[in-house]
Amino acid sequence: MAELWSNISAILPPNETRFPLQFSDKVESSVVDLLKQSRQQLYSDIANTSRVLNAQIILDISWEKLNTGTWRHVDKEWRRVYSYGCLFKVAALCRENPPSDVILQAIRTCDMGLLMGAAIMDNILHALVQILQSEVRKPTKEEDETEHIEAKKLKLECSHVPAIREDLAVPRIMCPSLESFKTNYLLPLKPVILEGIIDHWPALHQHPWSIEYLRSVAGCRTVPVEVGSRYTDEEWSQTLLTVNEFIDQYILNKDGVKSLGYLAQHQLFDQIPELKEDIRTPDYCCLGEGDDDDITVNAWFGPGGTVSPLHQDPQQNFLAQVAGSKYIRLYSPEDTEKLYPHPSQLLHNTSQVEVENPDKERFPEFATAPYVECVLQPGEVLFIPVRHWHYVRSLELSFSVSFWWS
Amino acid sequence: MLWFGFGFNAFGQIYDHDKLRLDGSEIKVMNPTEITRRVDRSDSRQKMHMKCSGIRASWSRRISLHLDGENCVCLAGFGAIPSSGYCGTYIEESFGCKDAFISESYLTLAFPERIECWNLKNNEKTRTWSMEIVTQSDSSGAPLNLPLVPGGYIAAKPPFYRSLSPQLKAKSLALGAEHVILLSATGAVYTWGLGSHGQLGHGDLTSEEEPRAVEALWGIPMSSVATGGWHSVCISAGGDLYVWGWNESGQLGLPSRALRKAQQQSSQKPEESSNREKNEEVFISIQAFPALLDITQCCEVRTVSCGSRHTAAVTTTGDLYTWGWGEYGQLGHQTLMSSDEPQRVDFFREQRMCVVDVVCGAWNTFAAVTMEEVSCTCNK
């Protein structure tokens, strides 16, 4: 166990002088003073409680800055400060033979830094969390078997599967050439389901994604979860849970929890690089203008019944289905008026209409808006053209990966 | 009048400590500590002051105002010379001022004919900005307190001077982390700035660029206003307290789910979590409309002040009540626990002291007390 600290020491700078702490004017000198104290404490022999306390002060003040103003305008410097706070806290927690619950706390701290902070020291928090994860990995065969059965049970309990009308079905095409995809679908902005283009993904073959696999790779990692039936509801909220907790509470319903939980729109693959290796960016993204770095990859993992209300996004989207199935409906941006977008700035990209239960009195024109629909199955990729309105409901336990590109 | 402080003290802003030791109990001061104690010094070059008329505090500093003829300000905390005197380092540049205000980066001084903002970065005081004041010919009643100045107010960062419409008849003004609250001479309350935490009190989460009256309080004249980081409070002429904004640490005195969850996780109240049905109680994380808060049945609220995420109120009977975030000891209940219910700070009662004023820094609280029983009208 003393091994843990030496493993961590090995990736830290060898001494105080080689430990970088540079910040712009945005960070007040009082805070920089504390950061320097923490750096000094890292390399000196003092009571560990002082290290933990100092790190916590840094976390508390930077947390307040992160919650001031709109997220977009939060200065990156404060997010760096927050990451340094996480680093110092983790170093302190792991200094003196920590028990496994403290190691889990340290993993959570790394995750908070990855989720809310900004990269520091060559993304040291990534390296730290991997060292910590290998300390706690202990899968048991028994657990695997019961969950396999549970997951199978879930598969049989499908939500109501809508019958797709042939004249309204999204067209399908098998492995089109770049040229034909561009000419027939991208340029005219027509939705289409691409079949056969992700068959090579390890997530579908070598490493099929299952609850057991996700637990083993990311079980103790903290992720953001949306709780509530849809993000337009008053009861909707976001919370942070470990992947294990999310699976237990919202997929397997161990606590008898009634509400829906959805690991939605989260850049999981930046946080857990191991999972990134199981997927590939679709070749067709090269038809866009940006770099590979400009592509946003999100994970969407949840039980049957999760709903994304009808909305539009400002980029092209490839929605790849890895496990389970989803009902999806698409409307053209030309028919936006018939979809009654919310008047508020916050939700102007979201329709007020409940697609599968529309209020005909409040939204009379909705029924006249033309649409296409599909049930997206594992191995299929849906092309959602930019600003095309889309509504998504999972029919069973589902895992999708979306690629936003321009 | 004596001043006591409790809460965050990492920079020695409540009382000096040996910074190299960084003892937990000196960083999180749980027991109210007098900050106006005498210090024996043979070196009499520094001015010694008996009377501290007021306190202002930022996150890492505290200033004491001495407005007793030879007006000046003393500074304690980050950058102040430790153990240098009675209540901090004497600020030469402040001699003759009539009011002062401190934020994390700037010290604002109000002199009879000008306002100055001093940059405190790196503890080298540089006068960053100043402006002349035109003394108004119709001095309408009470003098203005910083951050209010004739015609406007002084913001926490440049551009410092922000004008205010004379129609608002600004009487007092407070600055939160991302919003502003203004009390008019008519007793009306105006708010503006970001509203995503409900701190503007207009019933939604949208922001306002211009001062907008808090309609829910229309018809109830208010006598004072205060802001925390993301919450607002005001006292009516009749002594009632209204609160609105963010309640994630219980700073509104309303049930806070985040608080209860955090307390359950650190297993501070294990019995309650099993007894209580999870969904029975109504929790409030954001209160977008003003809510009336009953602190105690008998007494009226005399004055109120807010830190980042906590609130402190003094009743007309001389009691201090606090609630909200308490992890640095800033609630004064001699623990490091947060609370979403107003609780009396018993320390002062036990010492037979009457609390007459309260001023909060970001993570600490300063209370002014007198030993006179006369000003306390109730024996509860």
Number of helices of chain A: 12
Major sheet size, sense and barrel closure of chain B? 4 strands, antiparallel
Helix and strand content put the structural class of chain A at alpha+beta
Low-confidence region ranges of chain B: 38-47, 268-277
Over all CA atoms, what is the radius of gyration of chain A? Answer: 23 Å
Structure description:
The complex is a heterodimer of chains A (406) and B (380). Chain A has helices spanning 2-11, 29-42, 48-66, 76-93, 100-116, 124-136, 141-156, 178-186, 211-218, 243-251, 268-271, 273-276, and strands at residues 172-174, 192-195, 222-227, 237-242, 261-266, 296-302, 307-311, 316-323, 326-331, 371-376, 380-384, 389-394, 398-405. Chain A is α+β, with helices and mostly antiparallel strands. The radius of gyration of chain A is 23 Å and the shape is elongated. Chain B is mostly beta strands and 380 residues long. Chain B has helices at 24-27, 257-265, 270-275, 346-350, and strands spanning 2-8, 28-34, 54-57, 61-66, 72-77, 89-91, 99-102, 106-110, 114-119, 126-132, 148-149, 152-154, 161-163, 170-175, 179-184, 189-193, 208-213, 222-227, 231-236, 241-246, 286-293, 301-306, 310-315, 320-324, 339-344, 354-360, 364-370. In chain B, strands 2-1-27-26 form a four-stranded antiparallel sheet. Chain B is globular and about 55 Å long. The chains are: A alpha+beta (406), B mainly beta (380).
